[in-house]
């Protein structure tokens, strides 16, 4: 099986669905953020604090290339911003199949509210500020996400049943 790259906004389900997809296919699962954390020996928040977003994006680009070059068959969850910097989206498409995990802004906002404290770009934002950030960031990122081989609407992902239904649909879509 070829590499499958899961892309999409933060909290779109890349890690959750990626792990389940890897279990179903027997492929290795790699979360790019987790790979960076292991490689750098510090959290994404710490990297942002020390190196800024530009420094993090360079580390992320290098990690993307390392992962893609070392794994012929894997499910790879990219960071939410990964496709939007350098030539990352073109590189992803040249290395395998890319799947844009689409979620409505409202569904994203509901999930982001629960996890905003652990996300460096969202720390300290209230619901209104989160909503403004999601609208602004999605407007900037959607052009990159839409370059994916496949667009997949994940739905709400608010329950285990939602997640199971999404993974079943994704497997059918990818013919796996």
Automatic annotation (TrEMBL):
Mg(2+) binds at residue 15. The keyword Transferase applies. Coiled coil: none annotated. It holds the Pfam family SKI. Its main location: cytoplasm. Pathway: Metabolic intermediate biosynthesis; chorismate biosynthesis; chorismate from D-erythrose 4-phosphate and phosphoenolpyruvate: step 5/7. Transmembrane segments: none annotated. Its EC number is 2.7.1.71. It catalyses: shikimate + ATP = 3-phosphoshikimate + ADP + H(+). Binds 1 Mg(2+) ion per subunit. One of its GO terms (biological process) is amino acid biosynthetic process. Monomer. NCBIfam families: PRK13949.1. This is Shikimate kinase. It comes from Candidatus Caccoplasma merdipullorum.
